[in-house]
Structures are given as structure tokens and as C-alpha cells.
Amino acid sequence: MMRSEKGQSLVEFALVLPVLLLLLFGIVDFGRIFHAYLTIDQAGREAARVASIGNDDGVIKNTAINYGESINLQGSQVTINPPSTRASGDEVEITIIYPIDFLTPVIGDIVSPLTLTDKTTMRVE
Questions:
Q1: What are phi and psi of 54, to 5 degrees?
Q2: Domain that holds residue 73
Q3: In a 3-state reduction of DSSP, which class is residue 107?
Q4: 57 touches 84 (CB < 8 A)
Q5: pLDDT tens figures, 8-26
Q6: Rounded CA separation 94/81 (Å)
Q7: Is 34 exposed, middle or buried (0-12, 13-18, 19+ CB in 10 A)?
Q8: What confidence tier does 78 reach under pLDDT thresholds 50, 70, 90?
Q9: Average pLDDT over residues 94-119
Q10: 79 pairs with which residues across the strands?
Q11: Does residue 38 lie within any of the structural domains?
Q12: Residue 92 forms beta bridges with which residues?
């Protein structure tokens, strides 16, 4: 005797759908976080390069902000150490701290917010 399996398919789909959505949102979150990390790494390197040729702090922060434009990087997230006075042969360290929230509802409630940090050090010419 064959019974209709329409109800069974609907129940299976209802059980699998949350797992598929969680996986999909997890992939999207991973991509966003990876993009943000690569962006702050590039912004830190370029800001350190500008600092190594002896520019002032405003130019250095603007360089980092311009390279971090795709993630809306703010000047308050960029730290320059030592500030202002750097002599030839000194090292300058650019630190970028960028908080990022998860889109995935369950993971976001557990882990969020995640803070990405990038430190780049270069010698002043």
C-alpha cells in the first residue's frame, strides 16, 4: 500500500532549511570578515609606507582611511605610534582596530562583535 509522501517531503525540507540558511549566512560572514581583514592589512601597510617617508599624522591617517574606504574605516580606528615626532631610523607602528558584526543570527548572538586588529611596523627613512 503506497501512501502519499508530500507531507514527508515538507517536513524534511522544514528540518533542513535552517541548517542550509545557517551555512549560507556563515559563508557570507566569512567572506565579509576576510574582506575586512585584507582591507585593514592593506590600509595599515600603505599608512606605514607613508609614515616611513616622514609625513605628518593627518596624511598618514587619511591614507589609511582612503585604503579602508570599502569598509568605512574611521580615523579613530587608526593609531600611530610614536605620534608626530619621528626621526630617521626610528620605527613607526600603525595599528588599526576594526570591530565587525556577524550577519548570521545564531552565531552573531554568541560571538559578536568580533574585533580585527592589524599592526604594521616600518622604519622611518
A1: 90, 30
A2: 6-123
A3: helix
A4: yes
A5: 888 888 999 999 998 898 8
A6: 7
A7: exposed
A8: very high
A9: 87
A10: 95
A11: yes
A12: 122
Q: Which residue has the higher pLDDT, 28 or 85?
A: 28
Q: Which three cell numbers stand for residue 86?
A: 619621528
User: How many residues does the structure list for the chain?
Assistant: 125
The enclosing domain of 13 has a CATH number of 3.30.1300
> Which residue carries 582612503 as its cell?
66
Cis omega (within 30 of 0) for bond into 113 = yes
What's the DSSP call for residue 65?
H
Hey, what amino acid is at 42?
Answer: Q
Average pLDDT score, the chain: 89
Residue 30 lies in a domain: yes
Q: Is 1 part of a structural domain of the chain?
A: no
Q: Is 77 within the bounds of a domain?
A: yes
Query: How many structural domains are present in the chain?
Result: 1
